[in-house]
Structures are given as C-alpha cells and as structure tokens.
Design brief:
Beta-Lactamase, 572 residues, 48% helix, alpha+beta
Length: 572
C-alpha cells in the first residue's frame, strides 16, 4: 500500500506501541502489516503472520474469556459503520513463547477505520496494549486485601478467646498451665501472622510503585501521541478543526490558523459571523444544525474569509466521534481549498457562452447569405448582388473554420496530441507568403525586414499559424496602425521573429495574462470576436518547438509580439 511509503505514517506506525494493520474484509480481517512492538507483545518473533486471517493466527476457540466474542463483533462494527472503536479490557488467550502452550492474556484494543482512496482499499489500524500484568497485579492486590481482612478477623477472634481465657484464669487455677501453653501457641501464631502482614505490606508497596511507573509511562505515551497527532495535522494541506458535541470549537490546526486565525474561545455566533460569507451563512448554519441533531455526516461547499479579508471557496466535511456508549462526544472536520476549481468552472461556463456566441454569428450570416442566394439563383437581374453574397458567405465560412480549428487545437493540446512535422525553411519566405487575407484587403501593409536568409528546422504550418495569429491581433486590437512590421533576427543559437504595430499598446497589468487560456484583452468595454485561445495555442506551439514567446508593450507606444525558435534540431 502506498501509505506505507509515506515517511510520516511509517514514523507513527513503527513506535513502541504495538500496532497491526488489518484488511477491512469481513469476516477474515487479513493481516497486512504489524510493527516490532506487536510482534514482541504477541510472541510472533521468527514467525511471519502477514497475509493470514486474524483468526488463523489467533484461534478464538483456544482464546477463552469474553474476548473471543467481543473482538470479532468490534471489528465487524468498525468496518460496517466506518467508525473508530476503543474496547474495554478483555481476556483473549494467545499462544505463548513455549510451543503448544496458551498464555493467559488481557488486552486493551483501539480500532481505527481508514477509508479507501482511489489507489488503496480501506483498512483497520489497531493499537493493541497487553495489560495482563496490570490485571494480574490488581488480582494480587485484591487477594492481599482479602488475606489482610481475614487475618484481622482472626485477630479479633483470638482477642475474644484471650479475653475469655483471662476470665477463666481467675476461676480455674488448675487450668493455668494448659492456658499458658495455649497462649504460647497463640503467640507463635500471632508472630507468624505479623510476619505475613509485614510481607503483604511490602508487596503492596512494591505493586504501588510499579503501578505509579506504569501510569507515568502511559501518561508520557499519551502526551507523545497527542504531539504526533498535532504534527501530522499541521503538515497536511487541509484545514482541520474539532468541536465538542454541540459545535463549540476545541481545536484548529496550523493551516486553519494561518488561513482564518485562531477562533478558540469565541462564541458560536461570533465564530459564524467572523468566518462565513453572508450569503452562505444561513445555509451552512441550517445544515450544520441538522447534522448536530441527527449525527449525519456533514459535507458542503461554502466561502470562508481568510486572514487577508478575501472570501475563498472551500469544501467542508465533518463526521461525529462516538464513545463506547454510542454517544457523540466530538466532531472532526476538514476544509479543503477548492477556490481554483470554482474559478476554472466559471471560466469554462464563460468559454461555452463565448464559443456559442462566436459560432452563432458567422453561421447566422452564412445561412442568411445562402438563403438569399437560393432565392436569387434564377433571377438574371440579381447577378450584381450575388458576388457580394458569395464573398460574405466565404468570409463567414472562413470564420467558422478558424473557430473550429482553434477548438480542435485546444482539444489536441489537452490530449497532448499536437504533433509537429518539421522541415527546414527560410523564415522570411514564410512571413512574406502568410496573411494573404490581410494583404488582399489592401488596408494594412505587412513588411518583413532583418535576416532574410535565416533558416530554421520547424513545423512550417504551425509557425505560419503563430505569425497569422500575431498579425490578426495587430489588425483587431491596433486597427489604427496601418503598417505592421515583421522583424527576423538571429540571437545566439536562436531565431527571433517579432510582429510590431504602432497601436494603442497594452496596459502593464494585462501583459502577464495574454497567453492564458480563454483570456481576451478588451479595452473600455469593447467586445472583440474570438475565443481567447489564439495566443494560448501559439504559446504551446512554440513551447513544443523548444522556443520562447512573449510581448513588449506600453500604452501609447504600440506592441511587439515575439517568439524564438532553436536553430538546431530540437527534441519534441
């Protein structure tokens, strides 16, 4: 299991506390792993029980005591209800270190259910404490106390006999010698009983000292376990919180404190109003109150205010912790940051809306042109009208084709299926031959300068796509700049191509986002056509070539979009 490769889990697992991991397969509970402390406590040194059923390793029929019933029931309940269980002390005899013999054994067991993930099944982590010595010592103490009580009763009886003997002494001198002998015998018995009492007291003192040491060790172990829990809770990415049975906060991990702040000691109302978004507060309060009343698991998406005063989307989950009587004593919860996921969902919705609009406009125009052409096809007087309609239909068809090609390229990028077909070609020749649609319109001039003989080994069609995208953007966003310059340079072992316009430029705050997916840089509320994919696809094409892409721009000074390509063959 990948969990055993986690250093923190191994550190928690390989301690002096006996632990065993069981597969959550009722009724076998196959043994997956155990630490050395467990191996020693159960006399399995030199014997590998990994892969055995728990009952194959420790046959309940030989166990005696109530543990043969309690332990299987607890393991079944832990798996079925997916809860953690702490068992009271019970007797469950196990094979001793001597082959063929059973050893009287008393145990305390804590069962923790660990849910399955995408990469591993559910399992049970059991912490096993052998308390046989403690139970036997307690029985010895009880026996010593009973013996002391019995001796006290015998002493009272002897005193009564002595009193009667003294009364008889005054009445019968002839029985004096006999009475003296009896007294001597009684004195000897009392001496022996006094020695026994002194020995019992010494044993009680020794047992008391041992119990104090055990309590001290147990206290230290509990403190160490709490420290390990806090360290684990502070190291994971989720925010962890614990409340009492009515929802009052008792613990927050460091991730929560860094995100929200320390809210321990605040009232419930202050806690709600200080953390939750006003639009989410009542909805979260209603569901949380329902869970507190019913014990149902809690799961909900909502916004929390972080330490900067910003509201961030999180996924909140919580489950109740039940004591041995089945009563809820605490709630353990987590909050996972899903803000980025929410933003991606919003971007996806925006993209779908934009794509629908961008496709609908040229399709509607194309449809209208075709319908009008269909009506005029047999009308000789409409011959002068037909060519513009055909031209309009071609432009709409070309626009639809470009949009569909952008979507296909986006799909290929997502599947890493954008393949390159490289050949050697002269960059200047490619830039002179591209953008025919702009040149034919006669509105903008495109000039190429620089190293006119510079060759590269690249996918000419993809590089043409990048240059066309740069030029189209210059036409779209810098319409007042009628001259578009293409500059080709050799820089070390790289070729650099720049597309330069003299348009209004781009604000500094927008430059880092230009090559992001779906980003469209409109100015002053102006809406431009396109899906916001062109520069993103261009950046991916250049990246696959092993080059770089970027933009230099200042408001009022125009823009320069550029990319570089390796002069030598590059590995895709």
């Amino acid at each position: 299991m990948e969990l055993f490769s986690d250093p923190l889990f191994r550190a928690l697992f390989d301690t002096a506390v006996p632990r065993v991991v069981l597969k959550a397969n009722i009724p076998d509970f196959t043994i997956i792993a155990y630490n050395r402390a467990y191996e020693k406590a159960t006399h399995n040194t030199g014997r590998d029980i990994t892969g055995m059923s728990l009952w194959e390793a420790y046959n309940p029929e030989n166990a005696d005591g109530e543990g043969a019933k309690i332990l299987p029931e607890a393991l079944n309940r832990a798996v079925i209800s997916q809860e953690s269980i702490s068992l009271p002390p019970f007797q469950y005899n196990i094979p001793s270190a001597v082959p063929g013999e059973m050893e009287l054994s008393w145990w305390e067991v804590e069962i923790t259910y660990v849910s399955a993930t995408d990469t591993r099944p559910a399992f049970l982590l059991t912490t096993t404490h052998n308390i046989t010595e403690t139970v036997l010592n307690r029985e010895r103490i009880d026996e010593g106390l009973k013996r002391e009580q019995q001796m006290d009763e015998e002493l009272r009886s002897i005193n009564e006999e002595l009193s009667a003997a003294n009364e008889e002494f005054s009445a019968a001198n002839d029985e004096l010698s006999t009475t003296v002998q009896e007294l001597n015998i009684l004195n000897e018995q009392m001496g022996m009983m006094n020695e026994q009492l002194m020995h019992s007291q010494l044993e009680l003192q020794s047992l008391s000292i041992e119990l104090e040491k055990r309590v001290e060790r147990r206290t230290y172990s509990l403190a160490e376990s709490e420290q390990q829990f806090r360290q684990l809770a502070d190291s994971i990415i989720q925010m962890i919180w614990i409340t009492d049975e009515v929802g009052n906060p008792e613990y927050f991990n460091q991730r929560w404190i860094d995100f929200v702040g320390d809210l321990l000691g605040t009232t419930i109302e202050g806690y709600w109003e200080g953390v939750f978004h006003p639009e989410d507060m009542e909805r979260v309060r209603e569901i949380w109150t329902h869970c507190l009343a019913t014990g149902d698991d809690y799961e909900l998406e909502y916004r929390l205010k972080n330490s900067n005063g910003e509201y961030v989307w999180v996924l909140g989950r919580a489950s109740p912790f039940l004591n041995a009587e089945g009563k809820i004593t605490k709630w353990f919860g987590t909050c996972t940051d899903i803000n980025e996921l929410k933003q991606l969902e919003e971007k996806k919705d925006d993209f779908i809306s934009i794509a629908s609009h961008e496709l609908k406009t040229p399709v509607t125009s194309l449809k209208a042109s075709l319908q009008l052409l269909n009506k005029l096809k047999d009308n000789d007087s409409a011959k002068n009208v037909i060519p513009p309609l055909i031209e309009q239909a071609c432009r709409s068809s070309e626009r639809v084709s470009i949009l569909i090609e952008d979507l296909l390229n986006m799909s290929r990028l997502n599947k890493d299926q954008l393949h390159l077909s490289k050949t050697r070609f002269v960059l200047a020749k490619l830039t002179e031959e591209c953008c025919s649609h702009v040149r034919l319109a006669g509105i903008y001039s495109i000039t190429t300068s620089g190293d006119m003989d510079l060759e590269v080994n690249a996918d000419a069609a993809r590089i043409d796509q990048v240059v066309v995208n740069f030029v189209n953007n210059a036409v779209k966003y810098a319409a007042s700049s009628k001259e578009i310059r293409v500059l080709i340079e050799k820089q070390g072992d790289m070729a650099k191509v720049s597309v330069i316009d003299q348009g209004p430029g781009i604000p500094r705050e927008k430059l880092p986002h230009l090559f992001e997916r779906y980003y469209r840089a409109g100015e002053d509320g102006v809406q431009y056509s396109g899906l916001g994919l062109g520069l993103y696809i261009s950046a991916e094409i250049i990246r696959k070539h092993g080059g770089q892409i970027g933009v230099n721009s200042e408001p009022g000074k125009g823009s320069t979009f550029w990319f570089t390509l390796p002069l030598q063959n590059s590995v895709e």
